[in-house]
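Problem 12. The chain below contains 276 residues. Write out its predicted structure in token notation.
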Amino acid sequence: MLNPIVLTGTSVVITGAARGIGYATARAFIAEGARVFIGDLDGELAKTAADELGCIGAQVDVRSRESLAEFLAGVEPPIGVLVNNAGIMPAGPFADESDAVTDAIIDVNLNGVLRATKLVLPGMVQRGRGHIVNVASYLGEVPAAGLATYCASKHAVVGFSEALRDELDGSGVTVTCVLPSAVRTDLVSGVKLGGVLPTVDPEDIAEAIVATCRTRPSIVAVPGWMRSYEAVAALVPDRLVGAVRGRLTRQRVLRTLDTGARAGYENRIRRDVASG
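Solution.
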């Protein structure tokens, strides 16, 4: 039985934390007495958020190992908790998705997790303690039409998290994968996930992330009852599962995508893709 991570005075690193889940998570860790360091592609917004929260904020591009290394060099050692939260979710038909956008989704959502973990993990293993939280999505378990590459990237994060946790067994370092359902942030603006996933607040995810430091579980879904999906799906005939999924995702996500409400988020993502 692993001991809980003592958060008071512990350095906690959170990527993608200038807004949304990352911002709420930073605030929750600060409330526990942790020393929090937040990074975001928007460096100015990260610094503004850090000033509001009372922590340290800096620019970081998780697509770049050099940028991540520079960001982590500014963190007061040792790093006790790493929260890989940065992620993007462009939406639309897969055939219409440019290669640049596809590459960016994989590079941010998956490779960003791998890069940050590779940089932080050796120090944790050497000390024999540490905790890594990878924020995936329940869309890594539940498919959604119009979000094919996003689902693929999050499914990969789930697999990576479970495999790395097994690899680190007995080292004192643990890995938890958090599976949020639809979260009220810019990321899901204009995407009608109601009926596919329950909608929760960033603070709900933040609370779950902080709680993993006490119990260090393998996977946490928010809300927790969502974990029953896999068990039910395994017992239901494929044709019925496919019919239900199709009605929910195609009609509620792809065919009802509100491009107007989503324009601000999509434009920002594509601007970031172009700058990368």
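Discussion. Strands lie at 11-15, 35-40, 56-59, 79-84, 130-135, 173-180, 182-183, 199-200, 219-222. Students who got a different answer should revisit the alignment rule from Section 12.3.
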